[in-house]
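Each record in this resource describes a single protein on a pair of labelled lines. The shape at a given residue is found from the number at the same position. The record below illustrates this layout:

***
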Amino acid sequence: MSTDNETRPSMRLVYKRFKFVCEPGSVAGLAAILNRKIETKGLQRRQKSLC
């Protein structure tokens, strides 16, 4: 679980990169990954085209 102080930078990142305004709950997973609360070692990256 991410705190408010951990979630705010994730909201800023999503806004700056994608110009999406989102609620804190929608970036909770991103905040957990960025704050190393979720183990991502060994996961493969998948790249998808949005267009």
About this structure: Residues 4-34 form one domain. The chain has a mean pLDDT of 85. The chain has two helices and no strands.
